[in-house]
User: What shape does this take?
Amino acid sequence: MHVPGWHAAVGEQGLEKHLRTVGILQEQHPDRARLFMQWKRMDWPLLVDSLNLLGVEYVPITLLIDEEGIIRAIDPPLDDPSGLKRFARDGAAGGGRDGPRRPRGDSSKAPDLAALGKRARGGGAADWRRYADALYLWGGDERLDEAIGAYGRSLALEPSDAAARFRMGVAHRRRFDADGKDPGDFRAAVEAWFAALEIDPNNYIWRRRIQQYGPRLDKPYAFYDWVTTAREEIVARGETPLPLAVEPGGAEFAAPADRFDSGTRKSEEPDPDGRIRRDPGRFIGIRTVVVPPAVPPGGAARVHVTFTPNDAIKAHWNNEVRDLALWVVPSEGWRADAKRHTVPNPDAPVSREVRRIEFEVRAPAGADPGPARIPAYALYYVCEDVKGTCLYRRQDVKVRVDVKPSS
Assistant: This one.
């Protein structure tokens, strides 16, 4: 990690009065970075660029920026302290620290969103993207609908704008995180990131965003497996860990794997003859998100399944009987990491929380291109308060994975 290294180098060379270390984070959830900094006792400013306004394709990148905002070096060698001293000595452009200064605008002032919107309605794709960026950064959660719509208008005019597709995905994921009940935004985010990467497959930032939620075979590392350890060590030294708005888990904790493991544990199928009565979605809504949405022959995907009780009839889980179970029946040639998945019941006799299960599938090496269906079904005990009915129900789960043509 470059930022801690440069921060230490500045101190070791006695340049604290002349140089400052500032980090810029390419991250969907900046509060996780704050927790990491608390854990490691980092004390420098950290800026957030969730939209990747910098347009970088990879991290880490080190920039030496003078007091006039001019970049003097990119990725200077960390093991050469003379470069830091020379940069501190030379000072700003125009003859050192007492040289001429260019006037600066107040970049902390919120933009005129109404004016940007008016300009977008009479302009082109770049104007719509600029308006969408401003809505995302300055409009708050309540204007995310408008931001997503503005990105859509931009892409309608310039469909090949990969950056706009990525940013629309960021906005969708933020809207999903705002309530988390409807995974439609999560799916839209993944599809937007995937489309951006299809346009520009060399962008490390976009690829990592998909891998964060994707299968173990495609992971370079476990993204957030450090969270539990960080909290334990922070508590052990008498501090309170900073809170997280969205708890990581599942794919974000999963460690990378070099082979696909179908599991050796044998389980008996719970309803092989399909005799359990179906819930058509009246009691529990089930949505799936596949990451990535398309795989090459032999490729793997991670399936995120969300179970949401129907608020309209006050549906709730009956926790005094069996756990919610998901049974996966891979199509011919496909493999699943396990057939049976469960969500343990909480201690309360009833509850209304959203429940989630994740599993992985792998396409056969000779899979034909096009959509593939992975049969699955869920079994659960559910009650509703309108009529006081408690039932044991099955719901078939629709999982679709697209297979890309082999290259």
